Amino acid sequence: MSKIIASAAIRGAYKIVGQAEEKWKQAMDKWSANEPVGFPNTAYYLPVIYGILGEKVAKLGDMEGILKRCRALLPPPVREEHPLPYLAPALDAGMATFFAEEMIEAIRYLEQPDFYLTGEEVSDSNIWLGAADDVIMRKRGIEFVDGTAPGFAAVLGAAPSSEIAAKIAQELQQKNIYVFMAAEYNGQRFSEQLLEAGVQIGWPTRLVSYGPDITSAVFAMGFATRAALSFGGIEPGDFRKVLIYNKDRIFAFALPLGYVSDEWYANAAGAINFGFPAIADTPIPEVLPTGITTYEHVVSNIPHDEIVAKAVETRGLKVTVSEVPIPVAFGPAFEGERVRGEDIYLETGGGRTPMVEWVTSKRMEEVEDGKIEVIGPGIEDVEAGSQLPLAIVVEVAGRNMQEDYEPILERQIHHLINYAQGSMHIGQRDIAWLRVSKQAVEKGFNLSHIGTILHAKLHQDFGRIFDKLQVKLYTEEDKVKEVVEKAKGVYATRDARIEGMTDETTDIYYSCTLCQSFAPSHVCVISPERTGLCGSYNWMDCKAAFEINPTGPNQPVEKGDTVDAKLGQWKGVNEFVTKASRGKIDHYNFYSLVNDPMTTCGCCECIAVVLPLCNGVMTVNREYSGDTPCGMKFTTLAGTIGGGISTPGFVGHGKYNTTQKKFLIGDGGLLRMVWMPKSLKEEIGERVKVRAEEMGVPDLLDKIADETVGTTEEEILPFLEEKGHPALTMDPILG
Amino acid sequence: MAEEKEKEVVKSIDDATIDMIKKAGEDGVRTVFDRADTTKPCPIGSEGSCCNICAMGPCRVPLPKGKEETPEEKRKRTGVCGATAETIAARNFLRKVAGGAAAHSDHGRRVAEAFLIAAKGESPEFQIKDEQKLLQLALDLGVEIGERSNNEIAVDIGEMLLAEFGRQEGELLTLKKAPLKRQEIWRETGIAPRGVDREVVEAMHRTHMGVDQDYKNLLLQGARAAIADGWGGSMIATELQDVLFGTPSPVLSQINLGVLKEDEVNLIIHGHEPQLAEILAVMTQDKELIEYAKSKGAKGINLAGMCCTANEILMRHGVPIAGNFLQQETAIVTGAVEAIVVDVQCIMQGLVDVANCFHTKVITTDSRAKIEGATHIEFDERKATETAKTIIKTAIDNFSNRGKNIRIPKQKSDLIAGFSHETINYLLGGLFRASYRPLNDNIINGRIRGVAGVVGCNNARVAHDDIHVRLVKELIKNDVLVLQTGCAAMACAKAGLMLPESAKEFAGEGLASVCEAVGIPPVLHLGSCVDNARILIAATAMVKDGGLGDDISDLPAAGAAPEWMSEKAISIGQYFVSSGVFTVFGVTWPTLGSKEVTEFLFKDMEELYGGMWAFEPDPIKMAKLMIDHIDKKRKALGIDKARERVLYDMAMRREME
Fold first, then answer.
1. Are residues B239 and B294 both part of a single domain?
2. Whether residue B597 sits in one domain with residue B489
3. Are A313 and B647 a contacting pair at CB < 8 A?
4. Least confident of A249-263, A402-416, B322-336
5. % of chain A with per-residue pLDDT over 70
6. Are B115 and B128 within 8 A, CB to CB?
7. Quick one: B60 and B146 in the same domain?
8. Could you give the ipTM of this predicted complex?
């Protein structure tokens, strides 16, 4: 901290705390102390206050104590001559600023319920997204966990022009970094500048317009705090751990663009507590010594074309940008981009035309690496707004290539095409759907670039399992239909083979410690019949991942002697887990949630919970934000069991796993399932039916209650009794 | 005249002191500066070659000067009993350690007693001020907290720590505060002290006629007795003082004779223990007493400190300091001091003689430290207010006796003090991120080259404050952060080094940038000489925070007492050495009469403890020795070269614990 910065930060903190006190008094005049306050759909109250102080602000009256804490944290102003040490007081003032800002924003939610949008997307009339709810936080949090998003930039103010804003945003997007935006400079805001430049903003493109004022910056800190609580398994109030977790694992930084006001300085001081440095475009004083942040605390006067690179370096972040030689920008940040209506230049698949994607192995001599052929008319041959049939055939060859890896490569096609700016891809196999935008075509994007992307990225990520790769893109209907038929036969064979694998006949399982970047004591072990709880990894994926990166997060685990066949426990697995969890967990069961269940990092797709009254279990998926019969919403459940602890009665699992043969088989299997959200029933219903029939209860799906029946055990029990749910007559679930 | 001025410069670099030496001359008053001219140090005693522990002596066994001694000559160079020059030098050295350890520890004992009086509620004036530190201490010592009141907890702590002085076996509880590796070294080399008093008594026994006559064995007991001081008696004193009177935090104050006021009753508190000073700090604000002072023609009551008592109330209350050790008599020479109130340690008997030339009353307050010719008003914690009132009234009553011959030097400097270990921890990261990390980080990245403790006394044999200030300036110029206590701290404060603004002016670029970031001076005031324990705790905190080795001896750090004079300084130096710190002393060295003893202290101890002594009177050369040692440690840690910035990817994040 320099004296100038510390003085300004402390002044700013006084202003913001003062503002919070005033807002609170006005609110108290209008409502009572019992008036509920908070951010939408979150189990973390006002998250910075909850995470740092351990205090739950749920009612207006709860703010009184926090305001007092803020006051107590505010230090005396910094003396001009012979000042007392100011770094620590300024950091404290920064934290008080965040507490105050959360209360200001919570009161705004109370006073103007429609001020902020809900969900991930901006609308035509409103671009302020407000606090990310827990569904967004968990969904996006996984990207932080698996590394697809290494961090976030908190952008304050505005760039000198919308072109510069768009350039900075795109550079951050290409580095996979989320952009959280707040505050204004000279009446302009970064998010509005992006809109002006025609850039899509919102969570899907990682350009998050939190709010118009500096106080909205606290939403970024709330996101960071919740990451520590939910993925890091840190107890609320353990402020030191929350902050160190952020310093070590959340690679965020602040980009103040424009005049740095006292209030901005106060926010920057607060962010430094989290280990987030500030990189400014104005000549403010620098703070180069390290310590609270990993490297410099404040770096200033950086030209706009260097600011992103400087920020990444200052934060100590290594980003590998995939260079794909196509005329549009490329990266995960563009995955969520939409192409709609007037913007569409070309559309393929999606029921309108036939479309298929297929990866197949060839002999070495049959493949010419890097060859890309468009067979039939290309984009350049059709008018804007056209439709074409499309078959994408990827032919690979190599000594290490196995048929089993084909579906793994094939699954990449979806997101890789989506990563290109101006393309939108949905689905897979023969139900794929592609749109290419006019803007992309204007920049020179054509179908052959899909081949370029696949060649470059598959080589980069999977180069160890194949040597050569060529891509054929067919756009003539009869050719496409021919490919569809051939591919369908292969899909059927593949599915049958995977379905046929069992845990008993497999000696090697695979670990997944991908999430240890965020949940250091969590370790998944994946068997054929217990796919990864995040839904992203099955046994085959892990096997391939190990081939590709033998020292990576997926390691073979010799399962060893069976400790308990029914519950699914093996000696070799236990030994591995003990080591990989750094001694935190010494055993767990694959097939039970009652007895020592497997751990979760917090990014599971679903959480199953015992419902003792119903003698069964329920499961809830991440997307469902309502109440459940166990008394907890998904996010509360994830917060309770996440962070790598084994919690009897609760287990995280993947959606697909629900219908695998070993799902909770130690506790009675799928027949125990008494409640699921309606949307989940719809999503996996077909497979539930098949599995239930195998288990001898063909109409099980109809006997499973959902939120339309009730969200308490008492409400659903009569339904179960009426339907004759099999769980009611099974052995007591809690022995 | 010019010659005279030069002579005064040789006596002090402090203009206020020079002015008062001049005034003393004009007034015909004899001070320490004059006595140092007429009483020369005994050349044999000063090198540790005089043995006067039995009545067959004193025996003098000086090292022959200007020529190499033959083995035959060396064999003959013994005392009447046959004690070699080695034994004699080592015994003298050990007795100095014992004297110093006894002084600090008896201070600690009195604090523990006062602490118990307060804990038991027997003194309404003294209450537990720092609850947090009390509870921390309880946790450290395994004292039950539960639902018990602070006072109940404090009684247990007080009794437990008081018992440490008389502990007979095992080892001191407070040793556990040291890094684990350091504790192991002490145990392995057999110098983990069993009790405070026991080690001092054993030292006195072993140096009696005809007991321990192996110089190495004697010096090892010195190492042990010193630890009993630094990690025992002194540490107990600091910890309990903090709990009782509050842990210091940064405070702005002033120093030098210019803090005395022409129109107020000037009361100087001088010595070492804080109890009386604390109550005087409160009672000098008492309205009734101020009114009383006004009734006697004064505008108010001005309390100023001197020596380490001054440091105690400076650190906790910002009470200004009149001066350091060599200024005690010159303060009286101003003619404006109504009373100088003293407790224990470093109080010159010459005070009374000087005071006799003015109206100043010298008031002794401790039964252990009376001075012939002084007024004795005994301090009792149970009657703290009453005693304080009597003392203050005595001073006020003396105001009207002031003569016409008054001259208060205008010099006074601002300083920021109050850097306790707890405060440094807070200052480096705030409430939420408090730690030593930024310090370690900036040592590792080289902005800060290392840390030096520069402590100790003034010594009339060298120019007052000169060595301190030149050494410290040289260190900070070379990016070494300086921690100070005692009279050494006061010297640098007077030179303006304890202000944040001094970083830009005097410190190297790297250190200055860290000072600017944190808002601290490049020279930190950690308190009185008993508070050197704070430096040990700070060093331990640096070790524990990681990245700088696993023991104090691994740290890029060094210690110095450039103007030392007291036995306490020797004990402090030895406990720094026993803790693994390279420690340089200036002025003179008390074992030069034996090459072997000196060699053992300067070289062999490094192998035993990782820390060793050195002697160098020249401040610039002294700085060089310290910096070379710091650089040696940096090299051993592998932080001597600039390091590549590490950029983290996801795989590296997964590797983190």
1. no
2. yes
3. yes
4. A402-416
5. 99
6. no
7. no
8. 0.92
- Contacts of B116-122 spanning 24+ positions with Cβ under 8 A: B116/B155, B116/B158, B116/B159, B116/B162, B117/B381, B117/B382, B118/B154, B118/B244, B118/B381, B119/B151, B119/B154, B119/B155, B119/B157, B119/B158, B120/B151, B120/B155, B121/B151, B122/B381, B122/B382
* Predicted local confidence at residue B7, as pLDDT: 53
| A690 token code pair | 């098949």
Does some domain include residue B645?
Answer: no
Which of B315, B431, B481 would best serve as a mutation to test chain A binding (most A beta carbons within 10 A)?
Answer: B431
pTM for this predicted structure: 0.86
Q: Note whether B391 and B484 are same-domain residues.
A: no
SS3 label, residue B37: helix
Number of domains in chain B: 4
Q: Measured in Å, how far apart are chain B's first and last C-alpha atoms?
A: 71
Which of A82, A87, A520 is facing B427, going by the closest CB pair? A87
Looking at the fold, whether B545 and B485 belong to one and the same domain comes out as yes
B24, B56, B76 — which closes off a domain?
A: B76
Chain A CB contacts of B651 under 8 Å are 552-553
**Range of B324's domain?**
257-399
| B341 within domain boundaries | yes
Mean pLDDT of B589-603: 96
Order of strands across the sheet that contains B251-255: B375-376, B361-364, B337-342, B265-271, B301-306, B321-323, B251-255, B413-417
Asked if A84 lies within 8 A of B416 by C-beta distance, the reply is yes
Rounded to whole angstroms, the Cα distance separating B249 from B489 reads 16
Distance from C-alpha of A261 to C-alpha of A215, rounded to nearest angstrom: 13
CA distance B451 to B475: 9
According to the model, what pLDDT value does residue B92 have? 97
Query: How many residues does the structure list for chain A?
Result: 735
Query: Domains in chain A, ordered, with CATH?
Result: 3-315 (3.40.50.2030), 334-500 (3.30.1650.10), 508-729 (3.40.1470.10)
**Does B369 share its domain with B456?**
no
B429 and A CB contact within 8 Å: yes
Residues B326 and B437 in one domain: no
CATH of the domain at B127: 1.20.1270.30
Q: Which residues of B touch A92 (CB under 8 A)?
A: 430-432
What single-letter amino acid sits at A437? S
Any domain includes B407: no
Q: Measure the CA–CA gap between B588 and A159, rounded to whole angstroms.
A: 66
Domain end among B39, B57, B76: B76
Is it the case that residue B158 has pLDDT exceeding 80? yes
Burial B379-415 (b: 16+ CB within 10 A, else e): bebeebeebbbebbebbbbbbeebeeeebbbebbbbb
State the Cα–Cα distance between residues A459 and A370, nearest whole angstrom.
10
Residues B132 and B226 in one domain: yes
Range list of H helices, A156-261 = 162-174, 190-196, 218-230, 239-249
Q: Rounded CA gap, A640 and A652, in Å?
A: 11
**Partner residue facing B646 (CB), from A92, A146, A316:** A316
The gap from C-alpha B139 to its chain's centroid, in whole angstroms, comes to 27
**From CA A562, how far away is CA B150, in angstroms rounded?**
56
Q: What is the mean pLDDT of residues B396-408?
A: 96
Residue A363 burial (C-beta neighbours within 10 Å; 0-12, 13-18, 19+): exposed
The per-residue pLDDT for range A358-396, each reduced to its tens digit, is 999 999 889 999 999 999 999 999 999 999 999 999 999
Query: How far A498 CA lies from chain B's nearest CA (Å)?
Result: 30
pLDDT computed for residue B648 by the predictor: 84
CA distance B526 to chain A (A): 14
User: Amino acid letter at B169?
Assistant: E
Tens of pLDDT along B24-39? 999 999 999 999 999 9
Q: Is there a domain that residue B656 lies in?
A: no
User: What's the CATH code of the domain at B390?
Assistant: 3.40.50.2030
